[in-house]
């Protein structure tokens, strides 16, 4: 072959190598979008019905850091265009404050105002705001026209701030109202060094952090982010309270949202799936009083589908066992979440996760949290008090028990005493 024929090939290889070794966009934070439900459901939405000539300031904590960032908004469940009048981002101070001098304008195709069609997402231009790993950002969005809050994230364990008028450039919002949840804010991407990548945790309220201390970043994914940040690995929380593998209501079912919430995340290398407890617990309870009882076979079939789809995209998939829930929500208006028959289903699902050999690795979360004297219930010191969700100590125990080498695929074939069992990829 002549040198003239070889040169284009060498040039292509050089370009590919340069691209692989340069900075890359990686998902560093996320909140999965949900559709607003009506008043017939037992839980209130707890969000404003709409915004008009108002500003919302969200505080988020990154996992992996970078020298530039992008903000992603979602109008996934909107029936009308989402109009954004202006947006700014800065380093977060205390409460609703922004660190002086850190605020930056966020533009979309060079414009400070933009709109997203129904069902679409908005990805901002790169913002020159260097942010370290685990940095906290304040993102302020002004909505100038009537904006129905049709796409939101329920109960995010972080307080947003709402004020009248365009307050995107304000250093603080002392008179702001507060509410629970996220409106339209979907993700933060960072331009990270070469080799950076992300782990997405697909789950329900246990992943979303219910039972942890609000505004303290004490979900188990937050603690995991602290562990992984030194290695340049981001953690994206794709948990939705009330989420199910097979059913809708508080967010689309996992099979329906897997592509957007997991596979579409820039830099995703692995996904942890910790779902199924609501599929088992909801039927016959006030959440889904008319749903038939769930079988272990149906849960396993759904997990098999997620495994197949992850494999098709070369994403490593880790299966987490379902944690104990005896007595869950007893004595509350949601009584009926647990029963001995439902416990049998949970045990059968867990048995398949641990011994089925289908996941690339297994995280035995059940082994971490269960009471040795009564394995169907959570250890008291890890229980938030509702017997369904861990508290801060339980979430911390979960995050520290996960074996990182199994998560990233660096080690195989061993069972660790901390509850993280690894299996070879098949």
Automatic annotation (TrEMBL):
Q: Which GO terms of the molecular function aspect are on file?
A: hydrolase activity
Matching entries from Pfam families are given as: Lipase_GDSL (PF00657)
Gene3D superfamilies xrefs: SGNH hydrolase (3.40.50.1110)
The portions of this protein that span the membrane are none
Could you confirm whether the keyword DNA damage appears in this record? no
- Where do the record's region annotations for Disordered lie? 406-426
* Sorted UniProt keywords: Hydrolase, Signal
Q: Where is the signal peptide?
A: 1-20
Which domain of life, per UniProt?
Answer: Bacteria
Q: Where is the composition biased (Basic and acidic residues)?
A: 410-426
Q: What is this protein called?
A: SGNH/GDSL hydrolase family protein
- Highest classification ranks of the organism: Bacteria, Pseudomonadati, Pseudomonadota, Betaproteobacteria, Burkholderiales
């Amino acid at each position: 072959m002549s040198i003239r024929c070889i040169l284009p090939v060498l040039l292509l290889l050089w370009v590919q190598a340069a691209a692989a070794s340069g900075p890359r966009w990686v998902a560093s934070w996320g909140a999965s979008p949900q559709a607003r439900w009506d008043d017939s459901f037992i839980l209130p939405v707890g969000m404003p019905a709409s915004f008009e000539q108002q500003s919302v300031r969200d505080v988020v904590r990154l996992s992996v850091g970078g020298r530039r960032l992008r903000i992603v908004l979602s109008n996934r469940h909107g029936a009308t265009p989402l109009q954004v009048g202006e947006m700014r981002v800065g380093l977060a101070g205390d409460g609703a404050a922004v660190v002086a001098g850190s605020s930056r304008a966020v533009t979309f195709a060079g414009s400070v105002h933009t709109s997203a069609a129904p069902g679409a997402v908005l990805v901002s231009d790169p913002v020159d705001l260097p942010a370290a790993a685990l940095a906290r950002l304040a993102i302020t969005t002004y909505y100038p026209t009537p904006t129905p809050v049709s796409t939101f994230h329920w109960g995010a364990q972080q307080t947003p701030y709402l004020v009248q008028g365009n307050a995107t450039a304000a250093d603080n919002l002392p008179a702001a109202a507060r509410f629970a949840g996220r409106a339209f804010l979907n993700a933060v991407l960072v331009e990270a060094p070469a080799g950076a990548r992300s782990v997405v945790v697909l789950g329900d309220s246990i992943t979303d952090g219910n039972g942890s201390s609000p505004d303290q970043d004490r979900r188990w994914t937050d603690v995991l982010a602290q562990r992984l940040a030194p290695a340049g690995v981001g953690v994206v929380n794709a948990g939705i309270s009330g989420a199910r593998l097979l059913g809708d209501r508080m967010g689309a079912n996992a099979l329906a949202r897997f592509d957007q919430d997991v596979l579409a995340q820039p830099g995703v290398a692995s996904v942890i799936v910790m779902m199924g407890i609501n599929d088992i617990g909801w039927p016959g309870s006030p959440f889904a009083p008319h749903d038939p009882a769930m079988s272990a076979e149906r849960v396993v079939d759904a997990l098999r589908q997620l495994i197949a789809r992850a494999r098709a995209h070369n994403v490593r998939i880790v299966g987490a066992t379902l944690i104990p829930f005896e007595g869950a929500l007893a004595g509350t208006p949601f009584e009926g979440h647990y029963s001995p028959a439902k416990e049998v289903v949970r045990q059968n699902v867990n048995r398949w996760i641990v011994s089925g050999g289908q996941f690339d690795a297994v995280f035995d979360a059940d082994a971490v949290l269960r009471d040795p004297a009564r394995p169907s219930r959570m250890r008291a010191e890890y229980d938030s008090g509702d017997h369904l969700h861990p508290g801060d100590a339980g979430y911390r125990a979960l995050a520290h028990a996960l074996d990182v080498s199994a998560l990233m695929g660096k080690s195989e074939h061993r069972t660790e005493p901390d509850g993280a069992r690894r299996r070879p990829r098949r």
